[in-house]
Structures are given as C-alpha cells and as structure tokens.
C-alpha cells in the first residue's frame, strides 16, 4: 500500500498486481483515516464502492440527503459539484465498471441508476452484506482484489450483454477521447439515429452526446491535474476555445479549471489507476 498526501489528509492506496479477468473492470483499495469533504468529480464509468472497515463513508448531496455505506453510482455521478464524500477510518474497495459491462455485473442497467447513487444492498441484498464481511476478514489487499474479481467475473458471465452496436459506439467514443461526431456513429453501425440513441441511453445510462462530453471532460480534467495550461488543454481536447473548456468544467464540477486542477479526487488517480484506460 502506497501513501497519498493531500493537505491534511493521508490516504493509503493499494492497486491489484494483475488486471481483472473481465475487460472493462479496474479497481483500487483505499484506507483514509479522516476523509473530509471530498468533492465527487464526474467520471465516465459506473462506480462500485464497497466499504468494509470500522468506519463508513458518507455521501452529502446538495439537496440535503445523506447516504452511508457501500454504494453504486452511474456514469457522470456528481455533476455540478452536487455531491461530497466524508468519513472517518474509511476502508473500501472501489471498482470502476465500463458502462458496457455494468448491466451484467450489477443486475440492472446504468440507466436505472438515473444519474444518482444507490445503496449496494438495494441491488445485491444479502450478497452485499456477505461481501463486506469477507473483505473485513481478509488482511491482504491482493486477496481482497481477487475476491472482488471472482465475484465480478461470475456475475458478468451470468448477466445480460448490451447490443454489439452499442458497445462499439461506446468504444469509439472512448478511443477518440470524446472527439467523435455522434451523428456519424449511427451510420457507422448501420442503424438509424433514433434507434442508436434509444438503445445507447437505455443500456448505458446516458445519451451519446452526453457520453462524448463526459469522456472529453475526463480527459481534459486529468491533463489539468497534470499541470498543463488550460489554453493548451482546450485546444488539444477539442474545445472551441478556453472559455468553452471553462464552461464545461464548471457544468460538470461546479468549480473553475484552476480549482479542478488541485482536486484530490483527481490527483489520486495516477496512483490508484496508473493505467489511463482505467478512467474509462
């Protein structure tokens, strides 16, 4: 386990030594003694957070709702800077699922999450409780990752798949880092625009245009964290100009590009998810 320090917070971060047996799955382990008001930054993946320690993470929603414990969040969760996480003595495994495989693993479509966060117990019932118990009994992070991976692989194998055309469209968006003309995707798979938009939204949880913006934002945000200037990031990431980048960042996070560049949620990524593909 490696250490990540941001301000007064000290994070322990663990990474699997082996990739998941399921394509589109990445994970990391976290141990944080004092997690203080961490802004949740939207991400182009479905996030599964399984807590198992003596503490418990808390999600504070802008509307005043509090949510504790293990949760699942759809792609783009936290848009507008509306959600913050906090807690003490937090220990958890965080899994990022490509929206293409999320329905099979979770048992519901990302569209059913409706852009928000739901309790893992509501999706998996007793299986979620048993998972937390087993994670707490194991002392090795690598064994925890192996346990999670085996569970994910079993559920993925038994679960429903998305349409190949939908999966292909998503991969085109990700591979292009959001620099894809969405109007051309339908023609490339031989579907009508209406059919692709409908299937994409129902199976992946967001429409193609929103997916393009989210993937492009994620790429730009991590470049800002890496210290690149906003003007260069805007030009290279496909924004019309720096003002366009500014508007997009504010829309997704509620703060300016300068503030996003020092967000711990993003700064820890290079340690927790060293393979940039894990961001998608």
Describe this structure in words.
The protein is α+β, with helices and mostly antiparallel strands and 280 residues long. The protein has 13 helices and nine strands. Strands 1, 2, 3, 4, 5, 6, 7, 8 and 9 form a nine-stranded antiparallel sheet that branches. Strand 5 (58-61) and strand 6 form a beta hairpin. The longest helix has 18 residues, at 141-158. It starts with a strand and ends in an 8-residue tail after the last helix.
Could you say which overall geometry the principal axes of the C-alpha atoms support? globular
Distance between the termini: 23 Å
Radius of gyration: 18 Å
| Uncertain residue segments | none
Order of helices and strands: EEEEEEEEHEHHHHHHHHHHHH
- DSSP strand content: 15-25%
Seen as an oligomer or otherwise, the chain set is single chain
Tally of DSSP β-strands: 9
The total count of helices amounts to 13
| Average pLDDT for all residues | 89
Concise overview:
The protein is an alpha+beta fold.
Map the helices and strands.
Layout: E1 2-6, E2 9-14, E3 25-39, E4 46-51, E5 58-61, E6 66-68, E7 71-73, E8 83-97, H1 99-106, E9 117-119, H2 120-124, H3 126-137, H4 141-158, H5 164-175, H6 182-189, H7 193-204, H8 208-225, H9 230-236, H10 242-253, H11 257-260, H12 264-267, H13 269-272
Antiparallel strand pairs: 1-2, 2-3, 3-8, 4-7, 4-8, 5-6, 5-8, 7-9
């Amino acid at each position: 386990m490696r250490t990540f320090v941001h301000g007064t917070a000290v994070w322990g971060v663990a990474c699997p030594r082996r990739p998941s047996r399921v394509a589109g799955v990445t994970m990391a382990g976290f141990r944080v003694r004092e997690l203080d008001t961490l802004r949740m930054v939207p991400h182009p993946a479905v996030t599964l957070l399984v807590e198992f320690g003596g503490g418990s993470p808390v999600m504070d929603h802008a509307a005043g709702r509090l949510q504790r414990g293990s949760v699942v969040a759809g792609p783009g969760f936290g848009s507008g800077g509306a959600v913050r996480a906090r807690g003490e003595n937090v220990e958890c495994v965080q899994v990022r699922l490509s929206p293409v495989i999320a329905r099979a693993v979770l048992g519901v479509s990302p569209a059913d999450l409706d852009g928000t966060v739901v309790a893992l117990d509501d999706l998996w019932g007793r299986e979620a409780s048993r998972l937390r118990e087993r994670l707490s009994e194991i002392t090795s992070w690598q064994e925890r990752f192996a346990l999670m991976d085996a569970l994910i692989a079993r559920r993925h194998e038994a679960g429903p798949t998305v349409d190949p055309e939908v999966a292909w469209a998503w991969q085109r968006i990700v591979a292009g880092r959001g620099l894809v003309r969405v109007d051309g995707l339908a023609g490339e798979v031989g579907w009508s625009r209406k059919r692709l938009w409908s299937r994409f939204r129902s199976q992946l949880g967001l429409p193609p245009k929103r997916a393009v913006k989210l993937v492009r934002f994620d790429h730009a945000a991590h470049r800002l964290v890496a210290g690149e200037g906003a003007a260069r990031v805007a030009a290279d990431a496909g924004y019309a100009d720096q003002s366009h980048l500014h508007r997009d960042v504010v829309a997704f996070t509620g703060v300016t590009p300068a503030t996003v560049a020092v967000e711990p949620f993003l700064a820890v990524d290079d340690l927790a998810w060293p393979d940039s593909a894990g961001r998608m």
